[in-house]
Specification:
The structure holds two protein chains of two kinds. By secondary structure, chain A is an alpha+beta fold. Chain A has two domains: 132 residues, 3-Layer(aba) Sandwich (Rossmann fold), CATH 3.40.50.10070; 268 residues, 6 Propeller (Neuraminidase), CATH 2.120.10. In chain A, strands 2, 3, 4, 5, 6 and 7 form a six-stranded mixed sheet that branches. A four-stranded antiparallel sheet of chain A has the order 10-9-8-31, with no helix packed on it. In chain A, strand 12 and strand 13 form a beta hairpin. Among the domains of chain B are: 74 residues, no CATH class; 104 residues, 2-Layer Sandwich (Fusion Protein Consisting Of Minor Coat Protein, Glycine Rich Linker, Tola, And A His Tag, Chain: A, Domain 2). Chain B contains twelve helices and three strands, in the order H-H-H-H-H-H-H-H-H-E-E-H-H-E-H. In chain B, strands 2-1-3 form a three-stranded antiparallel sheet. In chain B, strand 1 and strand 2 form a beta hairpin. In chain B, helix 2 packs across helix 5 and helix 9 crosses helix 10. The relative contact order of chain B is 0.09. Classes of the chains: A alpha+beta, B mainly alpha.
Chain lengths: 446, 269
């Protein structure tokens, strides 16, 4: 009997003992991740070579500064103060002393080495998990020395991707309309710069009015609108070669040409017989196809990333609202139902959201909503702001904001701003001149 | 005849007495019910515990350690009873020191609640809003689980309560600690099913002997980059937090713990 009892106890006991306690962790902090960006180590010989070519004292530090600035601007990382670093860059790159980096609360560490090899710049970098004490990634790049800033951007993209799981957006450029002069007589030029505001270049002379430049999602082509002898023309510009061509002259007011996701078509709106509708143009055979046919004003078309749908704005319900339809023009559905006027809808490269400008009670908002119109979120409010453009990973929006003029007509300015989807990381993008109508390129390194 | 009457009378009297004796018990039952409810309340308060209990525990542990050093190595390891310890022959200065430490660091009420079993009324006084919210949170989780799953879960939960689960306050203390350490990767898409389950083996002081990702195979699968990022962030949080804030007793219960990291609520919010 006793034996039986013991047997039962012995069977039951392990079952009880293995009842594992589970604790659900559903909250955490949304603070930026503390990252230590150690200056990239560089030997004396390479240092003097790069000094001759690039006029930079210490290229290793310069590249790490690019990485650090990118990470800080993203709002997701907190690069730690270099003065707190205990380990020298060259030793850290070989084998970091994790206790030292742990001491300054770094959770990730970036180290690297810069060398001058066969007239070229060779950069290797490593990403370390400080708490786990292991290497997460190690890569090396070789390029011409003048590309050193891009190397910094590519390193940031790789680090960003490894630590967040989504693609980066740092090795990209922004095309925009540079503006100068009084409000009544603005000189507008097409300009391009790196996403961090460096390497600014003007692409047109400013003789003609330029509007709404838009990058191709697949390559470094740009389409924009320019007025020649007061007639709107749609242009195509190859950023790499500088070649420019007129796609077509269109009657009446033409608005906002934009590429299809495969880069083979341009979609735009223009007024024919006094009625604005949406049209596409095949860039190979230049055939124009009408997509909408409605007596209302249909403008600002933008394709979904899979090319199956188009979002646009129309006043067919009485007020300007956002609509979605099939790429053939069928199944038109209104998706914006909030108070106010909605415009400039742009489909996210991720495909899940549509960004828009909203005017309500005299204030302008930049916001996002799901593609069925639900989950509207207004990210930022201001006196005047519009034309959002997505970063290639669909996480950040760039747009432009104008300031009020005083009674004398002074104080006007237009600047580029960026904000991420959380709505917290709002930052002004530095430009040499006033700026409007920004458009974000795809990743250059793809 | 008379005899029969006497027997009948006696038996009737016996029945009346039995009935008279048993009826009050029946009548008492409903009166007994409220204490049962109140017992439940007590159990809940015990589970929730008072919010500063972990702190008090820590302080007690500190004092224990100090006393160990001061008194002798043979000092009782678990129960801390002031009177007994005071009665141990010590140099006067040392006794004063211990008392001073207690007076400085300890809230006497807190210690009492930790060491002694206080009355129900006292517990009610100590029951604050934060523990109410903890209760609500817990019930949310439990409700969600029972809605999703079958009766098995309820049995598991029963097991938790009866056999070895952490009390709500202990669980809350642990959660709060990890919340502070876990930097959620903000780039994660909230539409994806991302739940990282990590099994821990712990030392009695809360430091980690071993951590194991239960779905480790997912880490290296192509297209599971987000899972990998989340799993790595969870491991970082655990390492950053250790030693974990675990209960001072019942090591056998929690020497193995499973932490389920789920960022959806935060990313959606």
């Amino acid at each position: 009997m006793l034996f039986r009892y013991l047997l039962i106890v012995l069977i039951i006991l392990p079952i009880k003992a293995f009842a594992l306690i589970e604790v659900d962790i559903t909250r955490g902090n949304l603070n930026p991740l503390p990252v230590a960006v150690s200056p990239l180590s560089i030997d004396e010989k390479s240092k003097s070579n790069f000094k001759k070519i690039l006029k930079k004292e210490d290229l290793g530090s310069e590249i790490s500064a690019v990485v650090e600035n990118n990470l800080r601007q993203s709002g997701l990382f907190n690069p730690l103060n270099k003065n707190a670093f205990l380990q020298k860059p060259d030793i850290a790159n070989l084998k970091p002393r994790f206790e030292d980096w742990n001491l300054i609360k770094a959770q990730a560490l970036i180290t690297g080495k810069v060398t001058f090899v066969d007239e070229k710049l060779r950069v290797e970098f490593r990403l370390w998990d400080v708490l786990a004490g292991k290497e997460m990634m190690a890569l090396a790049f070789t390029t011409v020395p003048s590309n050193w800033r891009r190397v910094g951007h590519i390193i940031t993209d790789k680090v960003y991707q490894r630590l967040t799981g989504e693609d980066g957006y740092f090795d990209t450029r922004i095309i925009y309309v540079s503006e100068k002069g009084p409000k009544t007589n603005r000189i507008k030029k097409l300009a391009i710069m790196d996403q961090d505001g460096f390497n600014n270049k003007f692409l047109t002379l400013g003789n003609e009015l330029v509007l709404t430049p838009r990058f191709s999602p697949t390559n470094q082509m740009v389409t924009y609108l320019s007025y020649f002898r007061n007639l709107p023309r749609v242009y195509l510009l190859d950023i790499e070669t500088g070649m420019q061509e007129v796609v077509g002259d269109f009657p009446g007011m033409t608005f906002a040409p934009r590429f299809s996701p495969d880069g083979k078509k341009i979609i735009m709106s223009f007024a024919k017989d006094g009625n604005s509708d949406i049209y596409t143009m095949d860039l190979e055979n230049r055939i124009v196809e009408r997509i909408t046919n409605h007596p209302s004003i249909d403008t600002s078309p933008s394709y979904s990333p899979d090319g199956k749908y188009i979002t646009f704005n129309s006043d067919r319900s009485g007020y300007q609202q956002i609509y979605v339809m099939n790429s053939s023009g069928k199944n038109v559905k209104r998706i914006s139902f909030g108070n106010g006027i909605y415009g400039t809808p742009v489909w996210s490269p991720r495909g899940d959201l549509i960004a828009f400008t909203k005017l309500h009670k005299g204030k302008f908002y930049i916001g996002v909503m799901r593609t069925d119109g639900t989950g509207e979120r207004l990210l930022t409010e201001n006196f005047y702001q519009e034309a959002p453009s997505w970063s290639p990973n669909g996480r950040v929006l760039i747009f432009y904001r104008e300031t009020k003029t005083n009674s004398k007509g002074e104080g006007f300015s237009a600047k580029l701003w960026s904000i991420d989807l959380t709505g917290y990381n709002e930052k002004m993008v530095n430009t040499e001149t006033d700026a409007s109508d920004p458009s974000w390129s795809s990743l250059l390194s793809n | 005849m008379n005899r029969n009457v006497v027997i009948s009378f006696g038996l009737h009297a016996f029945l009346v007495i039995i009935t008279a004796m048993s009826l009050p018990f029946l009548a008492k039952k409903p009166i007994d019910l409220p204490p049962i409810i109140s017992v439940e309340l007590i159990q809940i308060t015990d589970k929730t515990n008072i919010p500063f209990a972990p702190k008090a525990k820590k302080i007690i542990e500190k004092i224990k350690e100090k006393e160990k050093k001061l008194v002798s190595e043979q000092a009782p390891p678990k129960m801390v009873k002031k009177e007994k310890q005071d009665s141990i022959p010590l140099p006067d200065e040392k006794i004063k020191k211990i008392k001073e430490i207690k007076e400085e660091k300890q809230n006497p009420e807190k210690v009492e609640t930790e060491i002694k079993q206080v009355s129900e009324f006292e517990k009610k006084d100590l029951f604050d809003t934060s523990s109410i919210s903890a209760l609500i949170d817990k019930s949310k989780v439990e409700n969600a689980e029972t809605n999703k799953k079958t009766d098995k879960i309820t049995q598991d939960q029963d097991e938790k309560i009866d056999f070895g689960g952490l009390s709500l306050s202990e669980e809350d203390a642990l959660k709060a600690q990890i919340f502070g350490c876990w930097s959620i990767p903000l780039g994660l898409p909230y539409s994806k099913n991302l739940l990282v389950r990590i099994k821990l083996q712990l030392k009695p002081d809360g430091s980690i002997i071993q951590s194991e990702i239960l779905d480790h195979a997912r880490m290296n699968k192509p297209g599971q980059e987000f899972y990998k990022v989340l799993a790595e962030s969870a491991l970082r949080a655990i390492k950053l937090c250790q030693p974990l804030r675990v209960p001072s007793t019942g090591y056998e219960k929690w020497k193995e713990l499973q932490l389920n990291f789920d960022a959806r609520e935060m990313l959606e919010g």
